[in-house]
Amino acid sequence: MIYANDADYHDGDHPMLHVPRKDKMAILNAMKSCEPIAMAAGYITDYSTGSIVTTVVGALYEKNGVRWSREEAWNLEHNDMEVSDEFADALLGRSRR
Fold first, then answer.
1. CA separation, residue 10 to residues 6, 7, 61 (Å)
2. 63: Cβ–Cβ under 8 A, 6 or more apart, which residues?
3. Is the pLDDT reported for residue 97 higher than 60?
4. pTM value?
5. What's the mean per-residue pLDDT of the chain?
6. At what angle do helices 24-32 and 70-79 cross, to 10 degrees?
7. Which of 41, 70, 71, 93 has the fewest CB atoms nearer than 10 Å to its CB?
């Protein structure tokens, strides 16, 4: 499984923020086009401020061998969260040669 970035969320790490990507809108559109495979009982965290976003409930998604959370998609959209090229390529169905 390919994840959005290398941050160890279980150890309290957060990914880098304010990392612009030219393909950000394509990635977000692909992320938002999927139905969740699991829902969470809590809300998501804004990685920039550490505050809880109570208008968005957590969820988990999977497509093309990649997995991400609604929290990661929200932070990509609002905080330009880092996303690995491997994740973006797999999500968007781009092959690397």
1. 12, 9, 18
2. 30, 34, 91
3. no
4. 0.91
5. 93
6. 150
7. 41
